[in-house]
Design brief:
This protein has helices at residues 15-22, 25-32, 109-130; strands at 4-11, 45-48, 53-61, 65-72, 82-91, 94-102. It is α+β, with helices and mostly antiparallel strands and 137 residues long. Strands 1-6-5-4-3-2 form a six-stranded antiparallel sheet. The protein is globular and about 45 Å long.
């Protein structure tokens, strides 16, 4: 695997709930503590974390996989977009999320690993402990 970030976490919700929450502007804004504008359609652009993350939904396989092109406002001018892949797997009565972020600017892997852990994995754990299933937008 090329250099990048690979994280896994277990969440006490169904793959459908986790998948739908990622692609729902309101739920995503709440669990990430930053404004999200996202449309759950292939080819649609999105903006997360108050515009810090921007990209396009490339592949949406309901309840199993999301692939997005992604860049942050920290990317150097002229740097290509990175690739974010989210895999949703049933794990007992929960869901295992695998987050794979590749094609990052050289040397930024640790920076983005910390970003995903602090701004997503940690806050998503808290969010899903308290929430009921999200309605699909």
């Amino acid at each position: 695997m090329e250099p990048g970030v690979k994280l896994t976490a277990i969440f006490p919700v169904s793959a459908k709930n986790l998948y739908d929450s990622w692609l729902n502007s309101s739920a995503h804004s709440t669990f990430s503590s930053g404004r999200a504008d996202i449309n759950p359609r292939n080819g649609s652009p999105f903006s997360l974390q108050n515009g810090y993350l921007k990209g396009i939904n490339l592949i949406l396989q309901p309840f199993g996989r999301i692939v997005q092109s992604l860049r942050t406002s920290d990317f150097p001018d002229g740097a290509p977009d990175s690739r974010l892949e989210l895999l949703f797997e049933k794990h007992n009565s929960s869901t295992k999320l695998t987050l794979i972020h590749t094609q990052l600017p050289s040397g930024d892997e640790k920076k983005y690993e910390k970003f995903w852990k602090e701004n997503y994995i940690k806050s998503m754990r808290n969010y899903f402990k308290q929430r009921k299933p999200v309605k699909k937008s």
